[in-house]
User: Fold these one by one.
Assistant:
Number 1:
Amino acid sequence: MDMIAGRGNMAEQNTDKAAKVDTLSDRRVRVSTRDVCVFYGEKQALYDVSIDVPDRAVTSFIGPSGCGKSTFLRCINRMNDTIEGARVTGKIDLDGDDVYDPSLDVVELRSRIGMVFQKPNPFPKSVYENIAYGPKIHGLANSKSDLDEIVVSSLRKAGLFEEVKDRLHEPGTGLSGGQQQRLCIARAIAVGPEVILMDEPCSALDPIATAVIEELIDELRENFTIVIVTHSMQQAARVSQKTAFFHLGKLIEEGPTEQIFTNPVHKQTQDYIMGRIG
Amino acid sequence: MNSLVVAAVLLVLLGLAYQVGWSRSRTVAVGADRRLHSRPAYHGTLAAIWVLVPVALVLGLWALFGPGVTDSYIRSQIPADVAASLEPAQLNNAMARIRSIASGYGVLGEPQPFENQAGQALRQFQLISFLIVIAAAAGLGVLALFAARRRITPALRARNQVEAVVNALLVACSAVAILTTIGIVVSLLFEAIRFFTFISPVDFFFGTVWNPRFSTTGTGGEGDYGLIPLLWGTVMVAFIAMFVAVPVGLMSAIYLSQYAHPRLRSTVKPIIEVLAGIPTIVYGFFALVTVGPFLSGIGNAVGLDIRATSAATAGLVMGIMIIPFISSLSDDILRQVPKSLRDGSLGLGATRSETIRKVILPAALPGIVGAFLLAISRAIGETMIVVLAAGNSPILRLNPFEPTSTVTVTIVNQLTGDTDFAGPQSLVAFALGLTLFAMTLVLNVAALLIVRRFREQYE
Ligand SMILES: Nc1ncnc2c1ncn2[C@@H]1O[C@H](COP(=O)(O)OP(=O)(O)OP(=O)(O)O)[C@@H](O)[C@H]1O
Ligand SMILES: [Mg+2]
């Protein structure tokens, strides 16, 4: 629980931002990982990643393409289980409970840790059914009107409702790429997860839709723990309180977002942020 | 021997032509502004095609008319008085003997002097005619090669011409398949129409009695040709087969595609597919010898009268035959459903079985229905199992534990033994065949349409 405090150098360097750091390090740790390595067959994709994800805050993962951000994200809700030949070592805790404990119920874990995938993957069902799917299997709605309510509010939060309100019963696969992305976000928040993992949720969105999603993330932060992978430095700076920089499968540096962007310890981090690696 | 020579000559000519075309195109291309339109390889191929056409033409003509020419030569070698004294059958026999003597195989009994003479002459004639044909073919080929060589200029669009030839070749090959199909359908249609001159279509399609009396005289006594009992038998057996095969096949497909470890899958799937490779006659006697008695034994034990050969026996065994068909096709279709959909569902906290029931199966449903339809058309067309195990009793009965008969079995019955295709007794086979064809055609087209719709969804 006191892992963040243990990373002393961060706190020291950011004395001017003390208030911010304090609020962050005071936070409960939701997800904590220690020495996580991931192998795809023989190939190692992640090397000894140790990081703490604070509660009720947005943590962003940045780094060049192929550095293992998605891989690491998938470890947290054990989606790597579904990949042939993927192997995870190390320790990942959610609220202090080992996520890889054999006695743990993966299905329950995934209902607590929601995920928005890098590639939009709407089901070949109607827009409505796409969103109602999760609440239905978890029995979150007692009546049809409850369900309608969940669907509409999820779509609203994802900034999609106005665009699709007349086509709720048309296939979700018929939406545009960006609309599908927002549909998947709406689908993930409809089940009310405690932790939401978002893999480049705005990669196909225009600035206005991006702003809506960022607003949503900001709002969700009040009650949930959010991890977001992004290729946009501005986005990481805007929405996140904590940032982790990955490079070639290693966690190079992590800390409060302000510090990473204004005063990074490692040269690699600085180079990346300035656009010199990538 | 002869064909070897022909092949050798052809190969040499084609090789030469390719070489000539290739090097000629390079020669004409010298000079800065004389870029070849096509690569030398295309010029070579085009020259080879130019050579191939006249050679193939000559050889083809000889293959077509050679035998006739040889025949008339043989006849001319038989002395006129001998020929006059022989019956047509004897004449044919003598000609065959002469041919055998010429080829050196020898003949039964002592050859007559005129046969020996004619044989020797034929031998020479064959040699000379063969040489002439080969020489003509090769000569024309060489002429064509010269013509082709003269055509070669840097601007010659050899590539486009070769592509056009290849294109035409492919079209011709697919035309063979299509023409065969059309031919079969047309002949079915014409013979069926001949059948309908004996029996009215209404009596055939709506009659409920099947009793085609075999009249040895071929006149009168036509009997009853009601399709309904056969159709009912076919549908019943196919339905029982699907009743067995669909659940088992689908479940095993789901297991293989969603649960089984890839290593297990890669061993189990081929084993299941071996089931599909077992000849249906083997299934047939398996039904007759094992399953039938077993079913009637069970019937005895519970006090039911179950016949050993019945719709149930045939349907059950046919179902087993179809299982690999359904499981293998469905497995492929289920695995075509993108993994991202499965991940999306699992990521929302759905269980594996929820994911399969609510996301994967609905997404794959059109394809799976297509697989079912293909399996049904397989069941409807299946013959051997029902011949052996259904009891061959073309009577309209509802009880699946009674013997029955199907369209395919009846076709076999109507065509075995002496048939002269003059009376309705054997012509009915064509009408039945046409019915069967129409049924499977409709099912296959439906299956294809459904499968295509499924493909469009993901590709
Ligand atoms: N299913 C897989 N099988 C094998 N290797 C994989 C698999 N998924 C990812 N990898 C490899 O693991 C490494 C990290 O991939 P990952 O998808 O985590 O990168 P990323 O940081 O998310 O990149 P991007 O920003 O492009 O999405 C890459 O080298 C990739 O090739
Ligand atoms: Mg990624």
Number 2:
Amino acid sequence: MKLESKIPAGPIEKKWDDHRFNLKLVNPANKRKYTIIVVGTGLAGASAAASFGELGYNVLAFSYHESPRRAHSIAAQGGINAPKNYANDGDSIYRLFYDTVKGGDYRAREANVYRLAQVSNSIIDQCVAQGVPFARDYAGYLDNRSFGGAQVSRTFYARSQTGQQLLLGAYSALSRQIGEGQVKFFSRREMVDLVLVDGMARGIVVRNLVTGELESYAADAVVLATGGYGNVFYLSTNAKACNATAVWRAYKKGALFGNPCFTQIHPTCIPVGGDYQSKLTLMSESLRNDGRIWVPKKQGDTRKATDIPEEERDYYLERLYPSFGNLVPRDVASRRAKEMCDKGHGVGPSKMAVYLDFADAIRRNGKAWIEEKYGNLFDMYHEITAEDPYKTPMRIYPAVHYTMGGLWVDYNLMSNIPGLYVIGEANFSDHGANRLGASALMQGLADGYFIIPYTIGDYLASTKFKPVKTDDPPFRESTKTINDMVNKLMSIQGTRTVDDFHKDLGKIMWEYVGMGRSEKGLKKALKFIPELRKEFWSDVKVTGKENDLNAELEKAGRVADYLELGELMALDALNRSESCGGHFREEHQTEEGEAKRNDKKFSYVAAWEFKGENKKPALQKEALEFEYVKPSQRSYK
Amino acid sequence: MNFTLKIWRQKNRTDEGRFVEYTVKDISPDASLLEMLDVLNNDIVRKGEDPVAFDHDCREGICGSCGLVIDGRSHGPNRGIATCELRMRSFRDGNTIVVEPWRAKAFPIIKDLVVDRSAFERIMQAGGYVSTKTGGVPDANAIPIPKPVAEEAMDAAACIGCGACVAACPNGSAMLFVSAKVSQLALLPQGQVERTERVQRMVARMDAEGFGNCSNNYACEAECPKKISVEHIARLNREFIRAKVAG
Ligand SMILES: Cc1cc2nc3c(=O)[nH]c(=O)nc-3n(C[C@H](O)[C@H](O)[C@H](O)COP(=O)(O)OP(=O)(O)OC[C@H]3O[C@@H](n4cnc5c(N)ncnc54)[C@H](O)[C@@H]3O)c2cc1C
Ligand code: SF4
Ligand code: FES
């Protein structure tokens, strides 16, 4: 198989405009003849479905949630980037492009990233027009804050609820289309298979989560906007239901999986409390604007934070990276926190935490100022830990947060399966080996509002579709396969719960495929994961009924997929014998402990092809070329 | 900590439902109430029985999925938080905790603690938006908005659509939810064009869905996890009268 990225020729500033001009158009009157399935209605899916509806396509939108407003996007706190340069601090499209390519440690496609930076300004305009209440200054104009990996203020925000407000904006546009009957929304439906007809994506099979029935839907194209797969680690900042099933089942139908091992570990999360813990809570990166990170200089220091005098504190990020300080990119900040704890400087009951301290900012600007900016984060922290961050520093530790990897897509956001598009966190596209803060919201909305509405038209206009019906053999075969899987899961009746297996998998992933990876560790993971998978399929216990609302069965299907995806992640991490961004192979580091890339050997996207159950997948490589931002050792000093 | 739980179990929409008693042991005070239910459910599964169904997702008070009536209070005893944010340290060791679903005519029970809140969806579809299309909008800074106005709009926009206000209201009214959306868009310049139609359509849909009337009981504000103020209801009423006069 040859991977064609379909990056248009020409200078980078003109690629997207030229490409848009060259794309075929569907005549307005013909749009209603086409049906598009959109799976997932988070930021990416809701914005795409609403935009398709406005254009006049028939849209069938699906979500396992009861409402689009419940999608995981709702939880994004900090903000969304756009190089409006309202702050007059030297920002530009080119600078955002540059920062993102560099932040991703030169493992993303330049052309995609440039386009992302280009359309991002329109996102802010669009959201404001919808009534998104972004933060404003006293003149009534939009306010900005800074995020890691950038030296300009380009992040737009709505208190610490930016994702909520953006999603509610997209959801309102989608609601209008649903109300007008242009989009049909199917709630509480989980896509469990992708259906191909003559090699083209022509439909899906979903499980109705209320009745347990398997339902089939046909269309001319299928868009997956199903989010990331961070929950393979069990503990992550993702919402509990986030899962990989849609992309994984598509992978098993032939879609290539790009850079599965690229995982983002976010530096500022509330540390793990105990075995009961079901998820980890993020403390937004925006806090690093005003909070200072430190550990006691003395190892094993047991004094209260407020009792440790200034000269006995190590503000290690400010010490190591004087120019970016506390605002180094996430991968760097996470790794340094782990290093400090591993060296015995960790704080709190578990000693696996560092301080994030606001005392200086409170002294400088007053408590009210902090409260206005971060009030609800402080409340959340207080609620969870019973400690008051206005009085004592927060304890934070890195946690799994985002997956840069995902299904491989070309410049048009189409996978290698004709008619299968993948947008938002579900694709592998724009963030390389490390995503910068406030860039996921930007990417999801760029894909949904401003890219796929154009590119899908080209496919529809240039493809001949034969009619398909949902009782055609490919749909019946899919339904049978899924039915068999469900019956198998229900019939094992072993001794351990789905959560037990998920937690075990999480521990393996965190230990060997987490923040520090090594050949030895990854080989262990590649041994342990298949063993655990075997145990799962012979000893899992799923109760309840298959034709009923059954959360255990839902979880079981998802964990079955994680048990395969986890192995692919380990395999990809083992193959990539270099460090880049969030992928840190302990064998490959500079003298100062930074990620050491090997551009000669690994300047490519690793796209994995499914070759059958329990068979080794095949590796396809898409070479990455850097014409504009020349790869160098990333430096944030 | 140890607790006795009285949990509402109901097989489906038509089943009568009843309380079932469970006990949980050795729960960390730092665990959330939902984490306590996870522990319970894993025990139930090990015994071969059907675990308690409840809605949840983000577990940090923003998605609006969770919603339980705990000891008679929507989202539990503490103010300003959602069910998922409630920690066990808020309860006394050894206590009995009663857990029920939202109870409101417009929110039928699907199973156990899971209810159908799609009536909220239909209210949103009736007018909870600005009819802008993707593209063709002015520069974001072309519409300056005074900071206090933007802040007030944001206060209203913070609603998570959980439905606690409806569950808390003796009349099962959705006024707080609807007023939050109406208020947000009525405050902002972007919402002016459709101001009249919006309030009429949303209120009509709300009535059609079987939500009760507002009798100024204010239980909604007290139980709202986002502390949405009843002042928005006053604004909704003004908007509604204004629309009538205009219409
Ligand atoms: C706590 C937190 C804070 C964050 N803060 C920021 C931030 O400040 N700035 C930023 O840029 N990014 C942030 N991110 C990242 C960002 O929120 C996400 O990457 C982004 O919202 C993902 O959007 P999405 O539309 O791709 O997917 P999601 O929002 O995850 O939506 C997925 C959708 O797919 C549906 N779905 C999934 N699988 C199936 C299936 N099999 N069948 C049917 N439906 C399915 C779901 O129901 C849902 O509707 C944050 C992430 C977290 C975890
Ligand atoms: S107004 Fe408050 S209680 Fe009602 S739906 Fe919104 S957040 Fe929930
Ligand atoms: S689970 Fe999301 S608000 Fe409670």
